[in-house]
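Our consortium's second objective concerns turning raw sequence data into structural hypotheses that experimental partners can test. To show how far this objective has progressed, the report includes one record in full. It was chosen at random from the queue rather than selected for favorable results. The single chain below, 190 residues long, was entered without modification.
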Amino acid sequence: MKKEVIVAGILGVSIAIIILSISLGSELKSDSIEVEDTLDKEVVAETETPEIEEKIDDVEKINLENEYSPKPREWITSGPFQIDRSKYAIGEKIFLVIGGITENEKGQIAFMRPLNDTHYSVYMTIPFDGMKKDVFNYYVEPQISKTKEICSIDDLMGKWAVVFRGTDYPNLYFEITDEVVPGTNIEPVC
């Protein structure tokens, strides 16, 4: 008798699961759009509202206005230190390559942002020690920051300097232009 109850219970649960999956499957089929082979085909929405069309037009217009392509790399060098360009757009990363520091070279790489034509402020420092590591790479992305008192893109633009503290290597200079990499947040923060 116990076996018959167990078998009947399992059979009942199985039937309930089958009925539930059939009813859910039919609901999904009725609300879903059948898609044939979409490989190499453009998917087009069946109904586009004027609001959606307007937003798409706005995005395309912004993309055309902000057409951006990075400038070619130039590799400006001072001793074992190199940066990849002389001009950067706002939102572009500055690629710093350090290669072949001798064991007795130790100091800091200071990225200096312009305050005016004659004065700079330290944006960031990167320590180096040839005893620990003689080769490494680093990315620096100058950006608007309330804590660094860089309130708008106006505070980023201009001629920057890279100073190699603790060495006799000459400074490197680069410029951040008014060009903006698409997708970069340029909202003022102060």
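The partners drew two points from this record. The chain has two helices and nine strands. The radius of gyration is 30 Å. Both points have been shared with the crystallography group to help prioritize constructs.
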